[in-house]
Amino acid sequence: MSSDYIYVAVFAMIGILFAIISLGMSWLLRPHNPTGEKLSTYECGEVPVGPAWRQFRVGYYIYLLVFVIFDVEVLFVIPWALALRTLKGQGLGLFAVVDGAIFIAVLAVGLFYAWKKGALRWE
């Protein structure tokens, strides 16, 4: 049993060493020739306009986080709903429904909180 862990440890060490050696060799062998053009901000081939550091409203990020949370919710709810038939046959149907209801309730509370804070208002 412990010999199985040795194989995993050996492969993990080989993977880590490969990554470290590859990055180290590329760092050592790369050409280092910084020019003004190479150090400028790259904007898809266009000439940069203005400074590269601009402040964005935090509302964009909050809106994005709320979207990602409910996008991930869909990834969990659809397989859960499809597995209900199998769980019902095993006597776990009520447990699965209550568990899913708690998950959806927590997300509903989060949605209500975001709504009240105005995070869903696009300005």
Would you kindly provide a written description of the structure presented here, covering whatever features stand out?
- The chain has a domain at 58-117.
- It is 69% helix and 0% strand.
- It has helices spanning 2-29, 58-89, 93-117.
- Helix 2 (58-89) runs antiparallel to helix 3 (93-117).
- The chain starts with a helix and ends in a 6-residue tail after the last helix.
Query: Distance between termini?
Result: 60 Å
Rg from alpha-carbon coordinates? 25 Å
Uncertain regions spanning at least 5 consecutive residues: none
Based on DSSP secondary structure assignment, what is the total number of beta strands?
0
Q: Which percent range describes the beta-strand content?
A: under 5%
Specify the biggest β-sheet.
none
Structural class: mainly alpha
Shape: flat
Helix coverage percent of residues?
55-70%
* Number of continuous helical runs: 3
Return the average pLDDT rounded to an integer. Answer: 82
H/E series:
HHH
Quaternary organisation: single chain
